[in-house]
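Duplicate of #3305? Posting structure anyway:
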């Protein structure tokens, strides 16, 4: 977990943030949000919201601004998520930054085997990488989709792997209410029961809005299930401006804000005080091809403003990561990722999903890109340290020792600090051309390939009580039998 005490960059003045807020309230009052879920609609209607059940494609709910603000005030500004290893507990909110790996891709890529469908072995590899690397504070959720496992049971293998191969916090499955309940049952086995995890939350669940202005059935099933169990929810509109929102960035921010606030209000109706994170996944479409674009200047600006809105509502904030549209771990991948990481850190994003491994607009989890993103993350953390201005930081003794025209390599001050004075690259090559050529003229992705293999070799499975692990295996086995029996042939 990173403590970021740097000043938070204010992209827009306060009056502009208030203007976005006021426009958001108009959208919620006049246009509303659609909820394709009878129970959620019933809950909102009983709370006094205006409901049109005949609207298409789903019942439309309109919110008063007083109601929305009343519900937001119930959500905690800061909360703790507990890991198997208490040293890996994370705090969400305030000046804390929590980084998690890529989430969702159906494919993986590395230099040895190329681009291919992800397998359970790949899934477990990425969980192991997240466990080994101290710069990842959460083991992730769907770090890749294990397509070699049956769709109806693969979530059991995924959650089991997250619980046993890592002792960091993790993300719950959100494909269905049934999958969410399996996640809660498995977490309860490991952490001491439903009451215990309700008191001390142990996971995060990502709920995406089906923008524009629609919550679908599956996401709402998961939202209701996790909120009742008092597990933290990340309410995140998934918006590509020009396709899922207006091309106007201002209008897109208003839409995102309305969607997020509506979902957060629902969580507080279901279970007041449920921990929640204001999420933003905002980028734009390429208007020539229709393809998603990442690492764009518009998405950078949108991230800054989204963070300002989250701070206004006193809610933890999720966004950012190493996003890119590039198909390989190349220069484009790195400049687009860097364009996203800068606002991520300058805005003090509390939960950073896709912090390592994202490639090809989220269709690929890349082993090499994972390492290259970690390099950026480590550099960002050094930047956040600031500049020491104490006696050692000002180095007046070095000036006294080394006169005009001299060299500081051999100064006593240099000898005290040369090992830790500057950032030492993980994979970047800073040697001259001749030395680089003599060592094989390797590009960054080749060096990254060697590093992720080294990390996997260094991985050690964290200890778990044998009885707990056996109970977990038994649950997975029994649930697979039930689910496979219920699967239509």
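Output from current build:
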């Amino acid at each position: 977990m990173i403590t970021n005490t740097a000043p938070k960059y204010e992209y827009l003045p306060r009056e502009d943030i208030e203007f976005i807020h006021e426009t958001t309230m108009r959208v919620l009052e006049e246009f509303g949000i659609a909820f394709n879920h009878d129970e959620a609609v019933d809950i909102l209607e009983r709370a006094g919201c205006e409901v049109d059940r005949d609207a298409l494609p789903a019942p439309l709910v309109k919110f008063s601004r007083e109601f929305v603000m009343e519900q937001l005030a119930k959500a905690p500004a800061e909360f703790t998520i507990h890991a198997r290893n208490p040293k890996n507990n994370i705090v969400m909110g305030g000046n804390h930054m929590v980084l998690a790996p890529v989430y969702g891709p159906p494919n993986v890529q590395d230099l040895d085997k190329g681009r291919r469908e992800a397998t359970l072995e790949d899934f477990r590899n990425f969980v192991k990488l997240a466990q080994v690397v101290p710069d990842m504070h959460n083991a992730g959720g769907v770090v890749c989709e294990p397509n070699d496992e049956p769709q109806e049971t693969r979530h059991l293998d995924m959650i089991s792997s997250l619980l046993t191969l890592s002792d960091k916090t993790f993300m719950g499955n959100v494909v269905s209410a049934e999958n969410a309940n399996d996640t809660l049952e498995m977490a309860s086995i490991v952490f001491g029961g439903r009451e215990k995890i309700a008191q001390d939350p142990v996971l995060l669940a990502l709920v995406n809005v089906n923008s524009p202005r629609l919550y679908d059935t599956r996401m709402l099933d998961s939202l209701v299930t996790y909120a009742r169990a008092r597990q933290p929810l990340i309410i995140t509109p998934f918006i590509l401006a020009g396709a899922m929102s207006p091309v106007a960035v201002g209008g897109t921010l208003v839409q995102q804000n309305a969607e997020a606030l509506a979902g957060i209000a629902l969580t507080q109706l279901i279970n007041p005080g449920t921990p929640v994170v204001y999420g933003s996944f905002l980028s734009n479409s390429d208007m020539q091809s229709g393809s998603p674009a990442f690492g764009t200047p518009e998405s950078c600006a949108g991230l800054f403003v989204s963070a300002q809105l989250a701070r206004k509502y006193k809610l933890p904030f999720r966004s950012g990561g190493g996003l890119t549209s590039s198909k390989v771990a190349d220069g484009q991948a790195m400049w687009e990722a860097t364009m996203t990481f800068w606002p991520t850190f300058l805005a003090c994003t509390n939960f950073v999903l896709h912090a390592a491994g994202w490639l090809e607009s989220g269709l690929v989890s890349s082993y090499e890109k994972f390492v290259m993103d970690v390099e950026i993350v480590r550099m960002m953390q050094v930047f956040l340290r600031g500049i020491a201005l104490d006696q050692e930081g000002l180095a007046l003794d070095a000036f006294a020792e080394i006169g005009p025209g001299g060299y500081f390599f051999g100064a006593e001050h240099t000898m005290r600090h040369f090992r830790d004075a500057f950032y030492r690259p993980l994979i970047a090559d800073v040697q001259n051309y001749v030395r680089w050529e003599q060592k094989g003229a390797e590009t960054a992705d080749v060096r990254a390939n060697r590093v992720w293999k080294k990390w996997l070799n260094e991985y050690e499975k964290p200890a778990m009580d044998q009885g707990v692990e056996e109970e977990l295996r038994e649950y997975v086995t029994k649930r697979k039998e039930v689910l496979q029996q219920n699967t239509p042939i």
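Confirmed duplicate; merging threads. The mean pLDDT is 96. Residues 17 and 309 are 7 Å apart (CA to CA).
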